[in-house]
Design goal:
single chain; mainly beta; Immunoglobulin-like; six-stranded mixed beta sheet; 0% helix; 52% strand; rod-shaped
Amino acid sequence: MLTVQPVGEDVVEGGNFTFTVAASGSPPPTYQWNHGGSPITDATTATLTLDPVTPIDAGDYSVVASNSAGSVRSATATLRIKTAVTPTSITTQPSDITLHGGENLVLAVAVEGSEPFSYQWKRDGIELPGGTASTLTVNSAHSTAAGDYTVTISGPGGTVASAAAHVMVVPMTIGMPTLDSGGVSLGLRTIAGRHYFLEAADDVNSAVWENLVEVIADGDGTVFTVALPGGNQLFWRYRVAP
């Protein structure tokens, strides 16, 4: 007779598990383990160890104990396999950014771990409607888009929050022109490292603008002045490289 029945379990994929059974009788019984009703090769002792556990190991197990007096089959024990869960972690944090008003603001985060993930972006601690993807885009951002942005990511492996990304929006402004013997000077509000082009034309609707000056700004939100040559060009504009 069987004195200990096998017991099923929920086991994480990649782990290990041992079924155990005990039987009494004379002569001592032999054992044959079965998986899904089919005999398991070389599984002929009172224990059955699965190491490592894989998805194909899931299912119903039983064992037949036999001796010359007869045989008895155990109750069925079910092994259920759980997918291994990897902790949620951020591999790339959203970056600080300075942009001009009217440009698109794009923030992104990269995550690893067990999927699926859900995202929630916040500005200054307030949830942003629609900010539920790994990338946050604010089209034609203006001063109201400035602030500290964070994103919270949740998944089977837990919930993590990003570091804050500071966003500054610099107005696209051009100062009043001044006239002197060298021509015309214009002040521009700039962002460090960005390329600026000053262009001129004799018609505001002209399809052709002459590039007068190219400047790489060396300060955030600073103002600098460039001298433009005189002539018949009555309209000036500045353009920012992407």
